[in-house]
Amino acid sequence: MKKPLIGVLGGMGPLATVDFLNKLIEETPAETDQEHVPVVVWSVPQIPDRQKALDGSGESPLPALYEGIDRLIGAGATRIAIACNTAHFWFDALSAHSTVPLLHIAEAAVARLKMNVSPPASVGLLATRGTLASGIYQARLAQEGFDCLSNTGEEIDILFKPGCYSVKRGEVAAGGYLFERAAGALATRGAARLILACTEVPIALERIRSRYLPICIDTNRALAAACVDYWRAAAR
Q1: Among 84, 148, 164, 227, the one annotated catalytic
Q2: In sequence order, what DSSP letters do the residues of 117-165 get, joined into one string?
Q3: What is the pLDDT of residues 56-81, one digit of tens each?
Q4: Which of 6, 27, 64, 219 lies at a 20 to 30 A Cα distance from 19?
C-alpha cells in the first residue's frame, strides 16, 4: 500500500498555490519537520485561463489539467487537491480521468462554514462567473439549509474580476480594495458569512487587513485543512 501523499494541482495562479501551501503548514499540528504533510506540487501557470475559457474568449484548460493530474499520480500522489475554485467547473471530468480521489474545495469550505455558523444564515459568495455558473457552492449551501447571495453582474465586472487580475499581476493591495467593496455589497444585503470562493481573494483581503476577514471562510485554508485531515487519518 502506498504511503499517503498529497498532490496539489496549482499554478492557477502561482501566488494562490504558494498561499495554499503556507496554509497547509499552518493547519498541520506539528512540532518537527517529520510531522508535516508530504506534498508533491504541479504548479504550471501556463494552464489556460479558466475565466476566459468559460466566457468563450479562451481555450479550454482541461487538457492541461489532465496533464497535471497525470503528473501528480505519476509522482505518487494518493489524494489530489486543486488550489483553484474556478477549475472545479471541470471537477467531474477530472475525477473521471483520475485514478486517485480528488478533494473538493467546496465540500471543504462548507464543512468549515458549518463549524462557524448555523443555518438559516445568509452566506455571500465572492466568486468568478464560472464558479457561480457551476453551482458547486449554491447546491451544497442549499443542502445544508443556508441562503446564498452573490454579487451582481455589474459588481463582478467592475469589482471582482478586476480585483482578481490585479492580484495575478502582483497588485495585491489594489485587488484587495476591490474585493473589499464586493464583500461590502454582500454584507450590506445581509450576508452573515462570506465564502472566499476564489483563491486570489483571501490573499488580497489579508494584505489590506480587510474589516470583513472575521466573517470570511477562506477556501484555500479549508482545502488545506481537509488535506491534513486525510493525511493524518491515512498515515496512522
Answers
A1: 84
A2: --TT-EEEEEE-HHHHHHTHHHHHHHHTT-EEEE--HHHIIIIIHHHHH
A3: 999 999 999 999 999 999 999 999 99
A4: 64
Task: Give the model confidence (pLDDT) of 167-211 as tens digits.
Answer: 999 999 999 999 999 999 999 999 999 999 999 999 999 999 999
In SS3 terms, 59-94 reads as CCCHHHHHHHHHHHHHCCCCEEEECCCHHHHHHHHH
Structural domains counted in the chain: 2
What lies within 8 Å, CB to CB, of 8 at 6+ separation is 17, 20, 21, 39, 40, 41, 42, 43, 72, 80, 81, 83
- Determine which one of 164, 198, 216, 227 is catalytic: 198
84 is catalytic: yes
> Rounded CA gap, 227 and 213, in Å?
23
Residue 1 lies in a domain: no
* Residue 227 annotated as catalytic: no
Q: Do 85 and 169 share a domain, yes or no? A: no
> Is residue 23 within 8 Å of 206, Cβ to Cβ?
no
The domain spanning residue 129 has which CATH number?
A: 3.40.50.1860
| CA separation for the pair 157, 162 (Å, rounded) | 7
Give the residue numbers spanning the domain of 145.
Answer: 106-218
Are 124 and 208 members of one domain?
yes
Residue 204 and residue 210: Cα distance in Å, rounded? Answer: 9
φ, ψ of residue 155 to 5 degrees: the values are -65, -35
Residues recorded for the chain: 236
Please tell me the distance from the alpha carbon of residue 71 to that of residue 230, in angstroms, as a whole number: 21
pTM equals 0.96
DSSP string, 168-194: HTT-HHHHHHHHHHHHHHHHHTT-SEE
